[in-house]
Amino acid sequence: MTLPAHRLPDLPGRVAIPVQTGLPSALAHFNAAPAAELQRALLSCLNSIRWAHRVTAHRPYPDVAALLAASDEAAYDLTAGDLAEALSAESLPALPEGAYSAAQTALSAAHAAYEARFGHVFAICLDDTPPGEFPDRLLAAIRSRLTNDPEEERVVAAEELRHLARGRLLELLRAARNRATSHNAPAPGT
User: What are the tens digits of pLDDT across the range 39-86?
Assistant: First the structure.
């Protein structure tokens, strides 16, 4: 018997799930990981307990886009305390090897001025920046953001943390995919 293309056979108690590869496979591990282990792994993406809890609590995610949307939503809801918690774990962006000592000196001075003004490390997402442009981009961004008042800078820093969290979350999934393809398939966070 051939069924019309628009109908599926009735399979009581069974659901047809297509086999997925790549990041979706890692997403299955993400969705199945024990909550405590996943929250620890998520804290490496954004050091906010509230954010990690919310991202974990909304599982399962049907796709990576849904996971990133939930990550964004949780990041938008960071309170001032959550933001301070997240910023406390951030480190200065690393300069590429071979960066001129003058650039390092200028960046060190700019970072010190920024931290003195705002009380926390400078956060910026450089995911789309070629490594050779890091020093110039960092210095220009710090100098520009030093003109912000504290509330403006809180909003900008929160947005940068959101971008950082997205990139790190994708890296977490890629690492899980790589572990799965190497036949050592632990869930993210293990």
Answer: 999 999 999 999 999 999 999 999 999 999 999 999 999 999 999 999
Query: What six digits make up the tokens of 58?
Result: 């909304």
Q: Which two tokens stand for residue 185?
A: 């398939």
Query: CA end-to-end span of the chain, whole Å?
Result: 48
Angle between helices 23-32 and 64-76 (to 10 degrees): 60
pTM of the model: 0.79
Residue with tokens 């599982």: 59
What value, to the nearest 5°, has the Cα angle with vertex 127 and ends 125 and 128? 115
Supply the DSSP symbol for 33: S
Dihedral in degrees, nearest 10, Cα atoms 164, 179, 20, 189: -50
Residue whose pair of structure tokens reads 């050779």 in the numeric block = 132
Whether the Cβ atoms of residue 123 and residue 91 lie closer than 8 Å to each other: no
